[in-house]
Each structure stands twice: as structure tokens, then as C-alpha cells.
Specification:
Order of helices and strands: HHHEHHHHEHHHHH
Distance between the termini: 53 Å
Largest sheet: 2 strands, parallel
Shape: flat
Length: 294
């Protein structure tokens, strides 16, 4: 009986040691993650201070430009109308945007400047933040996985900035023009708060940047075996409907040309994701065949 008790005591000590080791490993990982996050926060803070120095340019030449009829997008739309007047309606050429934007809080403009500069710091710091994420997950990957995902930071950053540019130059001005000029009744004058305007610009711009991460997400899901090219090809018609619905919501206009301008890159992203998933599946099958041969 005493031997059994001694054995139980030893087993209990061993199990306790294992649990303490696992607990220490968990907290070690948290400590490593904390260091990566702190470095990322430091870089974002530096970039935010840099954005404060150029705050006038950020506000006047970036944030407020989508409501200006002289914005690049509106000028290009008018040129397209001049080139194809019989195909594109006159309303496609935007030459006037009537909107009064007001501030209703005493500290509103200062807060807006703070928020816009912090957002600019985060956007500019995305490549470094992705790099820190990569450094954190890299030790947990196998050598083959590290090689296949070596371009993660570059491709994710490029897709994000392409999405931001597409959102800023295409989706944002088209949506703002529609929302500013839309009226339920002519007697109701559209007057917007600067908070509402800024949140619309940031949501549409950053949201598009996140949507453009679809190929990266598909790459990860395909690596995990969750997503397959066969499933994506079968779901192509449903994806097309979903993309058109998203395009219609993001650009709530009756113009089909505008909707297709927004939807086309999303279709291309979906097809690119299928190609990525098919390439991963091909490599997996090739590795399995080589394993069977050996």
C-alpha cells in the first residue's frame, strides 16, 4: 500500500513538473509575442510622429480630396466620357460635388488630426508589423514551410497597398459622390460631420486593403488543407454573385459600369486565389508521389 502511495506521489510530481513546463513554455511564448508587439508599436509611433509633420498634406491633399471635383478619379471619368460619349452616360462625368462638412465638437478637429495621423502611421507600418508576425511564427514552421512562405511579408504588403490604392482612388470617391448627392427629398440639405466623412474614407480604404488579402488567406487555408481548388471552382458562381453584391453595396449607384469597375479586381483576386490553391495542391501531390516512390 505504501509502495502504491509512493508511486502515486512520484507520478503526481512528474505530472506537476510537466504542467509547470508547459505553463512556462506558454508564458515564454507570450513574452516573445510581447517583444514583437512592442517593436511594432515603436515603429508605428515613429511613423505617426512623421505623419504629424505632414498633417497638412495628409488632410488637404489626401483625406479631403475625394470630395473635390478636381480629384484624379473624377478627371479620368470625364476623359472616359469624352472618349466614349455614346457608351457612357453623361452622369459618369462628375464636375460638381455640393457638400457642407462641419465640426460639432470643440476638440473635434484636434481629435481628427490625432486619429488621421495614427491611422497613417499604422498604414505605413503594415509591412513592418507583418514582418514581426513572420518572425514570431517562423520558429514554429518546418524548413519546407519556411521556404514556401518566405515571401509572405512582401506579397501581403503589396496586396494591402494595392487594395488601399484601389479603395482610395476608385471605391472611396464613387461612394462619397453618391452619398453626398443622394437625397430622399429636395428640401433636405445634406450637411455632414467631419467624423462621418473621415470614418467613411478610412472604412472604405482600409476595408479594401483587407479584402485584397484574399490570396494570402487562401494560401494559408490551402496549406492547412481546409481550402481546395476543386471547391473554389465549384463555388465560382456563388462567389460571383457575392462579389457583385459587395460591389453593389460599396458603390450604391445605378450605373453598371461603375459596379463592374469595382467588381473586376475582386473577380481577378478570386481567380488568382484558385491558381494559388491549385499550385499548393499540385506540390502536395508531387511530394506524396515522391514519398511513395522512396
Amino acid at each position: 500500500m505504501s509502495d502504491n502511495k509512493a508511486k502515486d506521489l512520484i507520478d503526481s510530481i512528474k505530472n506537476k513538473g510537466k504542467s509547470l513546463e508547459a505553463e512556462m513554455s506558454f508564458f515564454d511564448h507570450l513574452d516573445v509575442l510581447r517583444k514583437h508587439l512592442l517593436r511594432g508599436l515603436l515603429v508605428v509611433t515613429i511613423l505617426t510622429c512623421f505623419a504629424f509633420y505632414f498633417s497638412d498634406f495628409i488632410w488637404g491633399d489626401i483625406i479631403m480630396m475625394p470630395k473635390n471635383p478636381g480629384f484624379w478619379t473624377y478627371r479620368m471619368m470625364c476623359k472616359l466620357y469624352e472618349m466614349f460619349p455614346s457608351v457612357i452616360g453623361k452622369e459618369f462625368c462628375i464636375t460638381k460635388i455640393d457638400a457642407k462638412i462641419i465640426n460639432t465638437e470643440m476638440s473635434g478637429q484636434f481629435t481628427l488630426q490625432m486619429n488621421s495621423c495614427i491611422t497613417a502611421g499604422i498604414i505605413l507600418g503594415i509591412p513592418y508589423l507583418l514582418f514581426e508576425i513572420w518572425l514570431f511564427i517562423k520558429p514554429a514552421l518546418l524548413e519546407a514551410e519556411r521556404k514556401s512562405a518566405s515571401g509572405f511579408v512582401f506579397f501581403a504588403s503589396v496586396l494591402f497597398f494595392l487594395g488601399v490604392l484601389f479603395g482610395y482612388y476608385i471605391i472611396c470617391p464613387l461612394s462619397i459622390n453618391f452619398l453626398i448627392n443622394f437625397t430622399v427629398d429636395p428640401s433636405i440639405q445634406n450637411t455632414f460631420t467631419i467624423d462621418s466623412y473621415l470614418s467613411t474614407v478610412l472604412t472604405l480604404t482600409l476595408g479594401t486593403g483587407i479584402i485584397f488579402q484574399l490570396p494570402v488567406i487562401i494560401f494559408i487555408l490551402s496549406k492547412l488543407g481546409i481550402m481546395t481548388p476543386k471547391f473554389m471552382r465549384k463555388s465560382r458562381r456563388y462567389a460571383a454573385i457575392l462579389i457583385l453584391v459587395v460591389a453593389a453595396v460599396v458603390t450604391p449607384t445605378a450605373d453598371p459600369y461603375t459596379m463592374m469597375i469595382v467588381a473586376m479586381p475582386l473577380f481577378l483576386l478570386y481567380e488568382l486565389s484558385i491558381m494559388i490553391s491549385a499550385n499548393i495542391e499540385k506540390k502536395k501531390l508531387k511530394a506524396e508521389k515522391e514519398l511513395y516512390k522512396s
